[in-house]
Amino acid sequence: MREVAIVGVGLSRWGELWTSSLRAMWAEAALAALADAGVDQVDAVTVGCMSPGLFIGQEHLGPLLVDELGIAGVPATRVESACASGGLALKTAFAEIAAGLADVALATGVEKMTDVSGDECTAALATAADAEREVFDGASFPGLYAMMARAHMERYHTTREQLAMVAVKNHKHGALNPNAQYRQEITVADVLASPKVATPLNVLDCSPITDGAAAVVLAEMSVARRLAKGRPVVRITGVGHATDRIALHDRRDLTALPATTKAAQRAFTMADRKPTDIQLAEVHDCFTIAEIVVLESLGLCEPGHGGCQASSGRTALGGALPVNPSGGLKSKGHPVGATGVAQAVELTTQLRGEAGKRQVTGARVGLAQNMGGTGASTLVHILEVR
Amino acid sequence: MREVAIVGVGLSRWGELWTSSLRAMWAEAALAALADAGVDQVDAVTVGCMSPGLFIGQEHLGPLLVDELGIAGVPATRVESACASGGLALKTAFAEIAAGLADVALATGVEKMTDVSGDECTAALATAADAEREVFDGASFPGLYAMMARAHMERYHTTREQLAMVAVKNHKHGALNPNAQYRQEITVADVLASPKVATPLNVLDCSPITDGAAAVVLAEMSVARRLAKGRPVVRITGVGHATDRIALHDRRDLTALPATTKAAQRAFTMADRKPTDIQLAEVHDCFTIAEIVVLESLGLCEPGHGGCQASSGRTALGGALPVNPSGGLKSKGHPVGATGVAQAVELTTQLRGEAGKRQVTGARVGLAQNMGGTGASTLVHILEVR
Q1: Which residue among A50, A80, A243 places its CB closest to the CB of B75?
Q2: What percent of chain B has pLDDT over 90?
């Protein structure tokens, strides 16, 4: 298998961008990544996007977006795996280069979520669950994750405050990130006092609705070395992808995410790494409980110990294993199709030592975990500088 | 690059299947392909589907479908490129095996189109065009292809009857295909007398609305040889993928499809083949004019000579270059996400010599061309037995 590295990264502005179209945000991120890489031609483009059909009445994003960028002709692949669409775009571009179908590829993610009402947005997001067997019965994602939280609290005595600490930590990180949607710090009291969504989750336990795009340029290793110009070459050493039963009620255990465990095992095996090698991670904190369960399922802490990771300071900047130094989905924002690619943007920025005030000192091995639905699809990537 | 072959094929029933769900049809095709290959485990699944969000209110098909098949855990990738989603699923699975990320993969396509009204279906299909710059102004696909037809008739003196002959030929082929949606033969007079849709195209120039699924099992060559058990091993020797300006009004020439030409050139180069090596083809005849322009753009006939291919008998069964022996989209049906995979099913069946009454005698090299929108995305695959 040919080796693959990330040679350029880019983000659009993220937030509630009433005046930005999907294609404009996407082109902003793509152009930034191409400029960062110092390339103006690519052999392939991938686009992670969850539901442009429901959000903006547009499918067929592949040709739409390469056309917008002025490079119509280039093969363009849209992939979808709900909120893991971005991670899947990264893997798909990786595979094209690894196979030899491309030498340089642009892996991107985008979502334009604010053109529809809040109810329509919730309904569009709910299509990541089983429409006939969960959504029909009234399930939506806050409710499903709330059930996971209650199960975790019951089994492991995880506390309401520990959930809140995940949000507090991630907002503290996001306050240092000029690209974050929400740059204000919050307190545990703020989280506990914020409006209830689905007990025990309040508004400040939930990631926001976000418009935004992210892009990375991948290259075959020999090309990447030529393009590096003295900057560290960030290799993708591990790629893991796995699925699970889609409906939460079909899982044996609400307190673990087997697809995350499987994807991580595949990525660790491929990279010849183990959890203790990981020095920083970007993980899918769509709700506070998610970060807790994900850390356990990745093997980055013991089962049942997820709750104390943020509250003990271990996963904060300056801790032993900083998690979501970007601010995570909670503070940086969550344009669903873009999130998995934005995780790679953050890891690359960190591993290059270019993360400014939120830099994780000396980090050389990072992990990104991106999942769809209640974890029914998961992508794990391991990125390294050597 | 590792070599890849097709070792199993399967189709669900195709038609207006009011009582079949997307997942049931998909599982029917997938199980048929796995049985045909003699395997019960795969390393990866790809799913081509255009718009399950708009058609059935369900995204996240990857985990939904592997769950339905009882193999939750397996990495599953949904891809979308409008009506070329199936071809893209084939390419994506090819890349996973070629890269070494999988040894055996299930490439599938599916669309459930009859759960919505005719108007909603037309609106969902229109999301393959540029929503803001074509659909907003009233364009739909019959109208766009009608403009291509008028331009072709004006420039090359292609006749109304030549358009009709494409439908007549493909219905004649489809009448021999037990899997086809419409198995009745039709005449030129029938086509000319059928209701107008967008001048010069009538109802019988248009492919139908179809529910259905298709699946193929791909394997790395050494695995494929083990699984062959005396049947011919059908290699995928060429893979081409290209895009074009998405909006028809941005193209220089309405009488050619540059993405088809680019994708074909890539596939021919990879396979070390030329157009004259092709012995049969499955091409994207979503409208009669499409088959005509596609044959020219593939280099399978001269520019301007597409009109006489069907009328001269060259592209009929028994002719020098049978095109759409399956019946094509016109007669076999067009469940949009499934079509590109079904083309590979037909070519494999033909190259194995298992096509029964519609067998193309002695065929060893076939080509599949699958496109989205008005040709803004195109996949070309070359399949061979050696």
Answers
A1: A243
A2: 99
Q: With an 8 Å Cβ cutoff, are A60 and B376 in contact?
A: yes
Token pair in block for residue B24: 């049931």
| Inter-chain contacts counted by CB atoms under 8 A, chains A and B | 216
Which of A52, A77, A79, A53 has the alpha carbon at shortest distance from B124?
A53
pLDDT digits (tens, 9 = 90+) for A280-338: 999 999 999 999 999 999 999 999 999 999 999 999 999 999 999 999 999 999 999 99
Do the beta carbons of residue A338 and residue A213 sit within 8 Å?
A: yes
B128 touches chain A (CB under 8 A): yes
Preferred mutation among B21, B59, B125, B134 to probe A, highest tally of A CBs within 10 A: B59
For the segment A248-278, what is each residue's pLDDT rounded down to a tens digit?
999 999 999 999 999 999 999 999 999 999 9
Cβ under 8 Å to B: A residues 184-203: none
Asked whether the beta carbons of residue B243 and residue A66 sit closer than 8 angstroms, the reply is yes
Distance from CA of A356 to the nearest CA of B (A): 35
| A93-121 tens-digit pLDDT | 999 999 999 999 999 999 999 999 999 99
Nearest CA in chain A to B56: A131
Q: For residue A129, report the phi and psi dihedrals to the nearest 5 degrees.
A: -90, 180
CB A103 within 8 A of CB B102: no
Interface touch A67/B96, C-beta < 8 Å? no
All residues at 6 or more sequence positions from B45 whose CB lies less than 8 Å from its CB, including other chains: B62, B65, B66, B71, B74, B75, B76, B77, B93, B105, B106, B107, B108
What's the rounded Cα separation, in Å, for the pair A374 and A245?
10
| 3-state SS record for A274-318 | CHHHCCEEECCCCEHHHHHHHHHHCCCCCCCCCHHHHHCCCCCCC
CB-based contact, A265 to chain B, within 8 Å: no
Q: Which residues contact B324 (CB under 8 A, 6 or more apart)?
A: B169, B170, B173, B281, B282, B283, B285, B291, B315, B330
Q: Dihedral of CA B82/B88/B89/B90: which sign?
A: positive
How many Å lie between the alpha carbon of A23 and the closest alpha carbon of chain B? 11
Chain A: residue whose CA lies nearest to B97: A99
Q: Strand, helix or coil at A64?
A: helix
- In 3D, which of A287, A294, A9, A10 has the Cα closest to residue A170? A287
